[in-house]
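Q: What structure does this chain adopt?
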Amino acid sequence: MSRALVSLGSNIEREKHLPAAVQAMRQHPQLSVIETSCIFESAAVGGDYPAFFNAVVVVETDLDPGSLKTSLRGIEAGLGRVRTDDKNAPRSIDLDVVLYDDLNDPQLGIPDPDLSEYSYVAIPAAEVAGDWVVPGRNKSVAEIAEQPLPPTLRKVPMAEQNLDLSPEDAFEEYGPSDETFNPRFEALVREQLEILGEDPDREGIQRTPFRVAKSMAFLTGGYTQSLKEVVNNAIFESPDSEMVMLKDIEFYSMCEHHMLPFFGRAHVAYIPDGRVIGVSKLARIVDVYARRMQIQERLCNQVAEALMECLEPMGVGVVMEAAHLCMLMRGVQKQNSEMVTSSLLGSFRTDARTRGEFMNLVGHGLR
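A:
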């Protein structure tokens, strides 16, 4: 797999198109978004045009550089990018390969000359890849970003922009009446409402297809996330070898049989073997696999296997307890039932004392 830096810029509906481009890259079967920079605002270059939102992402890919550029052009086209003779004209989205491993190919434009000429590429790039050495320059990205480069750049505060490029990006349910999110999905929801005997044009549910499309994108956001992206190198050397446990991790998932929610708590533990992981990453790993169509048995195993894969500890233990609306709201309608699953790997499976310690700690949290 190769690593690349991709720069993003938008000055047409920029709040919409910047995160949409990142989402499209996450959904691409041959791209994994590893890290995203903050969003920066810059004045347009070469004309009296609206200001840009800019960002840079790190991706892993098995595409060669030319194919990667072609794929990014396809994403641009899907987001309404129209190229004209005016290279500075406003655009819905601009996606450029800034760096690709240690490739130095002027014909392909890699490294992107804009990295050394404009702050809106250099500064976001330094946030996510400051230690990368730029081929042909013998300077790191951070060193280039320290130079005075035009135009003046402003980091956009989260409170001001109400926008994030992270996978768990919050969404606003109520927008302009003609706004669309996923037209195909919305059309299917509208048809479903008609089949149920509803009038999809009545005031109370006129925006329901839009809201359902956005909420389902959030609830199934795990499909567009990778383990590497979520862990984001938050693994650290440590001599500790005692059990590490995070209890009562709330999670919400969707039953793949009825598309109804199941939700509950996860208890995740591991025994380090020279390395530990940032504690918040345990919760994020649970969410990556919970935000998909799931069965609880598989979800429990996937969380345990993911932690084994990224951390290589001596062992992992996961217990999940959840209520399933497909049993509470319909079917047998057993209101007080909870399902408990466990997944034990490594020393948690082979060592009875480790297993006993884990189950004892979990037991204090079980209702």
